[in-house]
Amino acid sequence: NGNPTDPNNPATPTCPTCTITPLPASPAIRLTKTGTFADANNNGKAEVGETITYTFKVENTGNVTVSDIKITDPKVTVTGGPVTLAPGAVDATSFTAAY
After folding, report:
1. Model pTM greater than 0.85?
2. I want to staple 97 with a disulfide (CB 3.0 to 4.6 A). Which of 29, 30, 46, 54 is the partner?
């Protein structure tokens, strides 16, 4: 049982018999980049003037809220964001790019 005077095993006034065990913060995100090729002349080849549109799916796989998430890519200009994601949240629409 918790002890309000023990910082390693505290209880709260609303639940004096509860034990609270702080978990270490573990921020983590997963990024999935997906490209869709627009073959304007349907010949199956990438040619000048045809584009690849990219979407970016960001998932908070950690146990804390992650704020001010921005995406950069050395090959394209990414638009959108920044975003904030709570644990378990997913954003698949805020960031896009075209090449």
Report:
1. no
2. 54
Q: Which residues of 63-99 are buried (b: 16+ CB within 10 A; e: fewer)?
A: eeebeebebeeeebebeeeebebeeeeebeebbebee
Pick the closest to residue 81 from 57, 53, 51, 98 (CA basis): 57
Q: State pLDDT tens for residues 7-64.
A: 555 556 677 777 778 889 999 999 999 999 999 999 988 889 899 999 999 999 999 9
Asked whether 60 and 88 are in contact (CB, 8 A), the reply is: yes
- Say if residues 78 and 56 touch (Cβ distance below 8 Å): yes
Backbone angles phi, psi at 35, to 5 degrees: -110, 140
